[in-house]
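FAQ: What does the model actually see?

It sees only this:
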Amino acid sequence: MRFLPPLIVVALHAVLPTWADHEGPDTRGRATAPSAHSITEPESFVRLRQARSAIRVKRNAKASAAGHNPCSGGFGQPEYRISGFQFNKTTIEAGDRSMTYFQLQDIGNNVSTSCTTPYLQDPNEPVWNDCEGDQGPVSPKTIFKYTDSTNELEINQTWICELENKTHPHPYFSSARINIANLLQCVDDATQTRCTVADDSASPFNGDYLTPIWNSDRVDVIPPSQAAAKGTPWNPTPCIGPSFNYPNWDVRNFSYNRGDGGDSVSLRLNNHASNQSVACTVQEGEWSDCGSNSTSVRFIRNNGELSINQTWICNGGERVIFRAIGSVTIEADSADSLYIKGSLTEPIQLTPNVAPEGVNHPGCLETSETPSWIVTSWVWNEIWRNGYNTGNLTATFYNPATGFNLTCTGDGEELNRDGRYGYDRWFGCGLSNSPFSEYEIVSSIKLNPLTEVFSINQRWYCNGHDDQLPTGFRAVGDVDTSLECSWNNNTATNTTIKTCYQTELPLIVQGNVTNRTELAQDVFFELPPTGYSCTIASVLSTQWRSTWQTDSLYTSPTFANTFKTRGYFGITFLALDGFRSVDYTDVSLTPFLPTSEPGRWYDCKNYETGEESSKAWARNSLECKWQLDLATGYFAINHTWFCDDKDPDNPDDEEISCDPTGMNPPPVLPTYLSWKTVPDAELKA
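And it is asked to produce this:
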């Protein structure tokens, strides 16, 4: 088995291009690059380190003029005192109802506000209520709750200090409580109970005061790539596409020459990728250059091995250097033209095996004459809901002739015995994003819900060999299923579901060829693929596009441990031609709080819905994680994926991490790139 190079992009991180200055009591930041790499620190990385070690605040002019508050300085821990306290409770038809009123003074900072319940409330179920506040740009959000059963009054305040440079705001929190049971003076009359607290009897009280906490020193920053963004080459890109697909040669005018100074060979070498040729005359038995050091040839007469080592350059928008090696056995007196299949060593180690799905599978032609399919999973649901009868079927099967495996789903009334449209509908299986659309495998399935006969209809192609021509096949097969079923009734929705599984798996479906078409002998010879290429994009232009934002909801209730931040963004990954939607909400994203976890890695997924954004991402992405530090604007992605578009048997694994951002952000580029090749079986394991 050939082991071809899977791409691996390792530890690639990037940092937001816009940096911010911040304040905080703990400013000991550190930023370290991986020890395995020695890199000169780029300017943007130096700026990030300076921002972490010498944090400054540019304060909002409005905040500075608003008086005593944490945003303007000269503000200490609040010390509260209440005055004019009044609690009224009455009984109505709905039960006990109450109202609370008092003036809240922060005597330490000379600030006051009025607090009252906005409506009659159940004293047995106390709730948080807003105090008035002055609605200024840095006014605190003040809430209170009075519990009649314990005579406890609770106060919570939040200040949000927005910085002039519009980086993430700094939150301040104060919470305190006082028990006024021994201070209350209550009077009952015919309609209500009225309780008050004498102003001179209420002592000052305070509690917890939380100021912004700098947690960002736990993030190990990897510097961003300094490379310029490149255009993404595709399969049809001249020179570049053929070089990744067919780095092959043909040899013409080969001759072996004897001479007193030693034997030599002469030949003309034609490169199929670059469409260039070179004439060579070299000594027998040793590597020799063909006029320049870009092409080296060696011929060994004893075993007849002709070897090629060639370098060429493609300028398809970007200058790319390719190197390939290859060999073939040739007789010394041969005059025939020979074909040499090459293996790339630069810019990636890869022996391309590019062809439509399954055409070169071993034994394809012979096995296709007696077609069959092997079903490995099979589930059928019949659904009756409010007079509407439908069903769905999901089956996974593969064709031994092509080795092609797929999961196919059908959904419609034809899969219910009480459906209105009969039972003969074929349900088409989803097509892959094939670069050979004219020769891709097309499949459909059918189930008769009365007879429980399952059918498969499939079209595929096989390459020729020896004197047999390439051939296209279409075959149909069916089989009696043996099912085990269960019923589920939901009276609330008036729904009944019957679920059936195939009892004996694997299930063999025998088929018959309904159409057989012979094709031209060279139809699959170096057939040019179309569209994007995972391998080409990964090697030459690994980059992500992302629109990215966060929401931090500084609303009631004003408790530090409930201030959640929502991070949501989309990642368009050009190598996979796929998209992933990410959505996550948690207190760990909110900066400057004890709950902040800027060093934490999160999975690239939609935590809200769990939905997959694209099939390409779901298939090829092995692992994706992201990291966010809103205190500094640092965002990183660590991504591992595989590409198998150039050699399905030996996919290339890739891993990378980097950054995004802004309304029109530049692409995210990798800092480090490496790859390796693994057998397909190992990857699946």
